[in-house]
Description:
Blueprint: E1 4-7, E2 11-17, H1 20-37, H2 41-60, E3 68-76, E4 79-86, H3 105-112, E5 115-120, E6 125-132
Antiparallel strand pairs: 1-2, 2-3, 3-4, 4-6, 5-6
Helix pairs in contact: 1-2, 2-3
Amino acid sequence: MKSETATPTGEFTLRLSATRRGARLARLLAVQQLHEWGVTGSAAEAAELVVAELASNAALHGRVAGRDFEVRMGLDGDHVRIELSDARGERRPLPSEQPDEGGYGLLLVAALATAWGVKDRCVGKTVWATVPTVPPIPLAP
């Protein structure tokens, strides 16, 4: 069974075990796919960080024994839509207002993405973010 799909339409889907190893593999394969799409530089780095954070959260907070998490990315012109789905619908991500040793991840996602959110699924939830593929044009002083 093929667990990875990459099509010319700019879609990528991957199911991985909800473990630290699965989260690491999600990041590495997302980087490879971004490269294949021609997304490079700071845009690729931003998307990589978003995938890494959301995959880590799916493996740590969204883990249900025996259930995988799913990574989906879609290239649409000037942005990449990143979606991470897990089986724990009752555990909604909330940015920490006063992070201590951890809790900065969703603040990072919010800073790198033009938008992010959570949507329900039949089983679990999907956390999504859109990351621009081109840097913003600086405003003239």
